[in-house]
Amino acid sequence: MRVSTECQFPHFRERFWAPACWAKLDEGGRPVSEDSGGGMETAFTRPAARAHRQNLKSLDLRSLPRDDGPPSELQIRREKFAYFEKRCSEVADGLFLGGEAVAKSREILRQSGITHVINCVGFIYPEYFKDELTYITLRLQDTPSEDISSVLYDAFDFFQDARSVGGKVFVHCSQGVSRSATLVIAFLMWKLDKPYDEVFAAVKAIRGVANPNIGFTCQLLQWHKRRHAEDFSRMYRIAPHSHADPLYLVPKLLSGRGRGCLDPRGSFVVHCDTALYVWWGSKCPPGFRVAAERAAEHLVRYEAAPQAIHVRHGEESPQFWEHILDPEATPDGVFENDSYTRDFEVYYNAAVSSSDPIHRGVVASAQHQIKEAAGCVSPGSPNQRSKKYRRSNEDPNEMGEGIPFAASGLKPIHTEVTTAAACNSPAAGGGESPPHTPPPRPPPRRLCLPHR
C-alpha cells in the first residue's frame, strides 16, 4: 500500500512536523528527501527530523474549539453554591439564612440589619461579633444521627425573644444548607402550622441550596406527627446534648416507658395527652432538675401541654405510674440505669470546672455521696454531733439540725467558768492557780473479733 504524497493535514504538518517528513516516498512507501550530494536518505533517520518529532509531546488540545454540551450536575451544583455563598437569604420577616462567609462579614450583616445570630457550628466557627450582636451557639454535626429535635425549642425561644424587640435573626452553619436550614424550617412549620413539604419548598425557592440531610428530615416529620397526635404517652430523659457540649442539658425522647427508664441520678419529663410530669431522683443534680423544668415549659408553650406536676422520687402517685404504663411499679423498683452512666460521668467531669453555680452545686453533692458510699462520713457520728453542740453554744436557741437547745435534752460541752475559778486565774489577779491534775485514763478496750 502506497501513501499519498499530499499532506491531508497541512496545519498539523506546519505546527508539529518537519517539512522534510513530507518529501517524496521511496519504493517502500516511506518519505525521503534529497541531500545536497544527491544521495537519498529516509527522513526518519535525519537528526533534525527526530528532534522535531519531540514537539508531538507538547500537543495542547485546549486551543481547539469543542462543544461541551449541557453542563453536568456537578457544574450546576458548584455554580449554585458559589452564587449563594455570600448571600444572606431572608426566608421570612426578620429571619435570615446563610453560611459562614456571611457570618464573618460585618458589612453584609449590617446591610441586612442583623441583631441576633444562631451559630450552629460552635466547635468550628467562633462568635465573630459577640460584642455587637447577640449570639446563641450550638454544636451540631451534619450527620443523620445528630439529635437536632432536642434543641428546636431553645432556638424557638431565641427567635421569639429577638422578634419581640424588633430584632432580625441570622441562622448559619458552614454553607447554609442543612443544619441552619433545618432550624429555620422547623420554626416556620410551628409558626405557620404547615407540614414539612410545603415549608421546605418555600425555603428552597428562596435559597436554592437549602437541603437538610435525611436524618434531619425524618426528625422533623416525626416531630410534626407528635405535635398533632391525640392519644399518646412519651418520656424524655435530661442528658447532655453531646460530649462536645456536656453542660448543655436537653430533653431526649426515650423509645420505651416504665420504671426501667427512670434513674435516681437524673430527671425525666413524662408527657401524656392529659398530664405533664417533671420527675427527679433522689441523687439528681440541680442542673438536671432546672433543665427538666425548662423542657416542661417548652412543651406547654409549643405543644399546648397542661401545666407540669412536679414529682420527687418516693412521692409518686398511682396516676403517675399509670401514665408511664407501669401501674404496678413502686419507688423501690427504680434503680440506676447503666446506659445512662456515661452521660452522668461526662456531665460531672465538666461541672467540676464550671463557673455556673447551678452546675457547681453538683460537685459537693457528688463528693458527699461518694464519701457516704465509702463509709468516710456518717451523718449521725459522735464527731458531727459534738460539732453541732459546739455551734449551739454560740446560739443557744438553735441546734445544728434546727432543734431548740432546751428541748434537746443534752448538756453543752463547754460549761461556764465559775466565779471562784475566775478569781484564782492569773488574769484576775488571784495568784497562781493550783496545778491541774488530769483524770486517769481508762485502760484501752480490746477489740473482740468475731470467729469465722
Please explain how this structure is put together.
- The chain is of the alpha/beta class and 452 residues long.
- Helices cover 35% and strands 13% of the residues.
- The protein has 3 domains: 48 residues, no CATH class; 143 residues, Protein tyrosine phosphatase superfamily (Protein-Tyrosine Phosphatase, Chain A, Alpha-Beta Complex); 129 residues, Severin (3-Layer(aba) Sandwich).
- The longest helix is centred in the middle third of the chain and has 18 residues.
- The chain is elongated and about 105 Å long.
CATH topology of the largest domain: Protein-Tyrosine Phosphatase, Chain A
**Helix-strand pattern, N to C?**
HEEHHEEHHEEHEHHHEEEEHEHHHHH
- The first-level CATH class of the largest domain is given as Alpha Beta
Q: Radius of gyration in whole Å, from Cα?
A: 41 Å
| CATH architecture assignment name of the largest domain | Alpha-Beta Complex
The strands making up the biggest β-sheet line up spatially as: 3-4-7-5-6
Number of DSSP-assigned strands = 12
Question: How many domains is the backbone divided into?
Answer: 3
Unreliable residue stretches: 377-438, 441-452
Instruction: Tell me the number of helical segments per DSSP (H or I, 4 or more residues long).
Output: 15
Which whole number gives the mean pLDDT?
A: 76
Q: Whole-Å distance between the termini?
A: 114 Å
Global structural class: alpha/beta
Domain Tyrosine specific protein phosphatases: 150-207
GO molecular function, one term: phosphoprotein phosphatase activity
InterPro entries: ADF-H/Gelsolin-like_dom_sf, Dual-sp_phosphatase_cat-dom, Prot-tyrosine_phosphatase-like, Tyr_Pase_AS, Tyr_Pase_cat, Tyr_Pase_dom, TYR_PHOSPHATASE_DUAL_dom
Protein name: Protein-tyrosine-phosphatase
